[in-house]
Design goal:
It is found in: Nucleus. Its main location: nucleus. The chain is mostly helical and 114 residues long. Helix content is 80%, strand content 0%. The chain has four helices and no strands. The chain has helices spanning 2-21, 24-37, 45-52, 58-106. It starts with a helix and ends in an 8-residue tail after the last helix. The relative contact order is 0.04.
């Protein structure tokens, strides 16, 4: 039982050192001190922390999600149009090749289809 507790403490200490060496502890401490020093506490402490750490606010996040959804829809529409255009181009090439093949067999130039 004692060995398990020692392993757990060792893991905790290693994780604490990792957070300290990567600057996470300093960043969190600064943000929490800034929150503590606020005279008028924000309605959402979590949003305050996210903003101070450089993340978007909830409203900014929602706006970005909506923009991403709009862009995905536009992308899907453009992709479908592109695929349709490629299909039409392929059909046109095939009809042109068929006409050229007929000309080679009949010896007559194709009639202008336009």
């Amino acid at each position: 039982m004692m060995r398990y507790k020692e392993e757990k403490d060792t893991k905790k200490e290693a994780f604490r050192k990792y957070l300290d060496s990567s600057g996470v502890l300093d960043a969190l401490t600064k943000v929490l001190v800034a929150l503590y020093e606020q005279n008028d506490k924000p309605s959402s402490a979590l949003e305050f922390v996210q903003q101070k750490l450089g993340g978007p606010s909830v409203s900014e996040y929602e706006n970005l999600q909506a923009e991403m959804s709009d862009l995905q829809t536009k992308y899907d529409d453009l992709l479908a149009k592109h695929q349709e255009t490629c299909k039409e181009l392929e059909e046109h090439k095939n009809s042109h090749n068929t006409t050229s093949t007929k000309e080679a067999i009949d010896g007559e130039p194709p009639k202008d289809e336009l």
